[in-house]
Amino acid sequence: MELLAGALADSVALLAGAWNPPTRAHVELARAALGWARRAVFVLPRAFPHKPLEGASFEQRTQWIRALAALHPLFAAAVSDGGLFLEMAREARTLGARRVFHVCGSDAAARILGWDYGPLPPIGQQLDEYELLVAPRPLPFAPPPHLRARVHTLIVPASLDGISSSEVRRRIRDGEPWRHLVPDWIASEVEKAYR
Questions:
Q1: Mind listing the pLDDT tens digit for each residue in 109-123?
Q2: What domains lie within the chain, and their CATH numbers?
Q3: Are 95 and 6 in contact (CB under 8 A)?
Q4: Structure pTM?
Q5: Distance (Å, rounded) from C-alpha 77 to C-alpha 12?
Q6: Beta strands 39-45 and 11-16: pairing type?
Q7: Contact 90, 82 (CB under 8 A)
Q8: pLDDT value at position 50?
């Protein structure tokens, strides 16, 4: 894991994503995660396990997460060599984090718990190395009973429902209003990247 901005702490909440583009919801998720961890880290994997890099360039995305990290003294930004939560958690531990959370929505949590990890440990063993902070999207996530101690609900404003990177891209493509969904200071860069 390569830090781009800020520093890690003994407890970190990793917000891993494609940042295609960042949204206001990402910022609010990071703020909410600070109730659980001493640092919220926007993480861009060098490779994604489930999708190719499309849209904005990798360099543009690193600039965006650096800008997100500048919004709060407890935010940071990093690039991860691994694309899976387990790999990112291990990378964060090598930089001194002792407690690692991954922040995601309930839709992503369902995918994570049902993912075929092949030769890697099953999700129950992986959650010995990190915990999940799950935001309702739109409904709360109910983990299986044996994982409840490692999967926590992240309380976020209901107004975040419906804000997503894919919705921003769709609105740009269809000529609908979208600027209110992204942080003001990256709107012009987002427009250049997707028009």
A1: 888 888 888 888 888
A2: 2-163 (3.40.50.620)
A3: no
A4: 0.91
A5: 11
A6: parallel
A7: yes
A8: 67
